[in-house]
Structures are given as C-alpha cells and as structure tokens.
C-alpha cells in the first residue's frame, strides 16, 4: 500500500491509473478503522481495479464542544488494517492541505442537512459536504463507497454529487455490527464493558421496530414508542432522538407508506452514538 500526503502526488498516481483504463473506487474515512470500514474497502476492491482510501479527521464537522481533539487516531493499526484489506493508495492529508490560509468556501445541502444529525449538530453536514467535495475533486474516483450506518451522510453526499453533476457513482455498504448488535463505529473505542452493555439498546430498539413493521404496524408514533420502550430497559442510555423519516427526503412521516428510515441517536456516558434501520413495505 502506498501512502501519500500531497494533493499533487495523489492526483498524479490516480491519473496514471485512469490513463491505463483502470476503474478507481474511493473510501474516505476519519481513521480508527473498524470492520465497517474494512467491509467498504472489500466492496471497493470488488468493484474496481484500484482502491484509494483516505484518513482525515475533519475539524470542520465537529462542534466546539465535541470530540475533535480526543477522536481516536491509531495510525499504525489503521495502516496495517487498510493494507491488509487491499487498499492501493492511502491519502492522509493535513488540515492545512485542505483548509489553507484564506480558504472560505463551504458547501451546504439544504433540507437534508438540517434535520436529525443536522438539527442536533448544527454545521456538521456543512463540514461533511465541504470536505467530501474537496476529497472528490482530488481523487476523482469512478465510485465512492459510504456506509449505511451513516445513512443521512450517505444520502446527503448522493444529493450533492447529483446536484453538482460530479462524475462519480455513490454506493452504500450495509451496516456492520459487533456480535451483540452494536453498530461498528470508531467512537465505540470510548466505551467500557458496562457502557457497551447499555449501548446495545440502540440496535435492540431498532430490532423491535423492525418486528413491528413486519407485523404490519404503520404508525410512526407507535414505532417510535416501540423503540423508546426497549430503551427504558437501558437506564444509562440517554436518548437524543428517535425518528421515522422518508428514506429519500429525510422528512418525518406520520404513516409508513413507502421506504422509511428509523433513525436513532443517544448518549452512553460522554459518547454519542447513532444507528438506523431502512425498511420499505413489501
């Protein structure tokens, strides 16, 4: 696996592959690599001749009271895992590379970026959209792989690429879960054993919502109630939101009549976690 920092070198390497007719797939990450990331790399490896990954902890998507400074950065471990999964080129830009002095452009996807995570974390998706656009302009991949665990982020990036006529296809990989059901996340590293036992309440609440949907429940309010009832069994799980939204527009629905996303967010101790379930009537 080749590792680079400089934008010009990344462009030169990827441009050389493309001149040879190779398809290029790209997996952007913030590091602290876990099985969810590795699953995306494997999907990228199967979809293209060359795979580029990036590690960049993006300061623009963190709020002033969030965990930018303490976000896990196990670089040596990350390098070994990505190399073992088949990454050809790992790009590790510095903050000054993507946000040089005088830089002042921001990207905002209206509507999609203002609800759920956007409502709880003002400015978060502006930071996400801005950095992803910058990364795409450098790598210029044929395929961009994102995870379903961050469904709102993936949907927002899909919309941005469509609206800005970017020549890239956005694909999603399914959420990967730990044996107890907890969705793989870099922030899981913050959790001790007792907190992990509480954090599984997110996925268990979603599992109950899925059973209700399959049994014919179509009221969004009752589905939300199903999740919250499960969460009462986990006293250290502090809810942020439970929402049932249209899977395309991310606007709340009252009844499930088309494909929806049941999206949840909660805190365990100081760690904020998200998860979701996408489902459509048969």
Please provide a written account of the structure.
By secondary structure, the protein is of the alpha/beta class. It folds into 2 domains: 2-173, HUPs (Rossmann fold, 3-Layer(aba) Sandwich); 186-279, Pantoate-beta-alanine ligase, C-terminal domain (Pantoate--beta-alanine Ligase, Chain: A,domain 2, 2-Layer Sandwich), CATH 3.30.1300. 38% of the residues lie in helices and 20% in strands. It is built from 10 helices and 9 strands. The protein has helices at 7-19, 35-47, 75-85, 95-98, 117-120, 124-139, 151-163, 193-199, 201-214, 220-231; strands spanning 2-4, 24-29, 50-55, 89-91, 143-147, 169-173, 237-246, 260-268, 271-279. It has a 6-stranded parallel β-sheet with strand order 1-4-3-2-5-6, with helices on both faces. The longest helix is centred in the middle third of the chain and has 16 residues, at 124-139. The radius of gyration is 19 Å and the shape is globular. The termini are far apart. The mean pLDDT is 98.
């Amino acid at each position: 696996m080749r590792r680079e920092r400089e934008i010009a070198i990344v462009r030169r390497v990827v441009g050389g592959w493309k001149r040879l007719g190779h398809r290029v797939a790209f997996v952007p990450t913030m590091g602290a690599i876990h099985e969810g990331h590795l699953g995306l790399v494997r999907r990228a490896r199967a979809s293209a001749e060359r795979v580029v990954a990036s590690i960049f902890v993006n300061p623009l998507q963190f709020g002033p009271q969030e965990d930018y400074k303490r976000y896990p950065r196990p670089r040596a471990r990350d390098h070994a895992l990505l190399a073992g999964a088949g990454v050809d080129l790992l790009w590790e830009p510095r903050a000054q590379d993507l946000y040089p002095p005088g830089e002042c452009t921001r990207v905002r996807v209206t509507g999609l970026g203002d609800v759920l995570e956007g409502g709880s974390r003002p400015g978060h998706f502006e930071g996400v959209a801005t950095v992803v656009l910058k990364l795409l302009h450098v790598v210029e991949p044929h395929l961009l792989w994102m995870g379903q665990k961050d469904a709102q982020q993936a949907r927002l990036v899909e919309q941005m690429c469509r609206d800005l006529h970017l020549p890239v296809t956005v694909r999603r990989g399914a959420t990967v879960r730990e044996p107890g059901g907890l969705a793989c996340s870099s922030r899981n590293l913050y959790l001790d054993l007792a907190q992990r036992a509480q954090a599984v309440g997110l996925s268990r609440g979603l599992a109950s919502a899925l059973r209700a949907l399959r049994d014919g429940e179509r009221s969004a309010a009752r589905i939300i109630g199903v999740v919250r009832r499960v969460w009462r069994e986990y006293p250290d799980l502090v809810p942020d939101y439970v929402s049932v939204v249209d899977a395309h527009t991310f606007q709340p629905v009252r009844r499930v009549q088309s494909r929806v996303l049941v999206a949840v967010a909660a805190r365990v101790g100081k760690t904020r976690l998200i998860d979701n379930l996408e489902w459509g009537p048969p």
